[in-house]
């Protein structure tokens, strides 16, 4: 299953998705990009990304996580990955 299909399945569940959805894709098709946003993605990024771009996405996700009063359990692993990227970026002086 690709990411767009998974996102659509999340939306079909009719429960609010309490985390940002970022699509990383090598596709440039404008229809797929529009469909991703229409399905609830908050960012659509074309691969390959630079380390700085990954860092910026990680910071975005961390800011979002910090804004939540109660973080969903499913978000804890994402936050751990984002913090690891942030630590790497600091060490690399990005």
Give a verbal description of the structure.
There is one protein chain. This protein is mainly alpha-helical and 94 residues long. Helix content is 56%, strand content 9%. It has 4 helices and 2 strands. The protein has helices at 3-12, 30-38, 51-67, 76-92, and strands at residues 22-25, 43-46. The protein has a two-stranded parallel sheet. Strand 1 (22-25), helix 2 (30-38) and strand 2 form a beta-alpha-beta unit. Helix 3 (51-67) packs across helix 4 (76-92). It is flat and about 40 Å long. The model has no long low-confidence stretch (mean pLDDT 76).
Would you kindly provide a brief summary of this structure?
This protein is mostly helical and 94 residues long. Helix content is 56%, strand content 9%.
């Amino acid at each position: 299953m690709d990411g767009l299909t998974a996102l659509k399945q999340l939306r079909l569940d009719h429960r609010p998705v309490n985390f940002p959805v970022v699509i990383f894709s090598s596709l440039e098709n404008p229809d797929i990009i529009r469909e991703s946003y229409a399905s609830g993605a908050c960012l659509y990024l074309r691969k390959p990304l630079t380390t700085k771009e990954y860092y910026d996405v990680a910071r975005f996700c961390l800011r979002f996580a910090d804004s939540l009063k109660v973080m969903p359990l499913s978000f804890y692993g994402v936050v751990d990955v984002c913090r690891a990227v942030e630590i790497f970026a600091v060490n690399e002086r990005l």
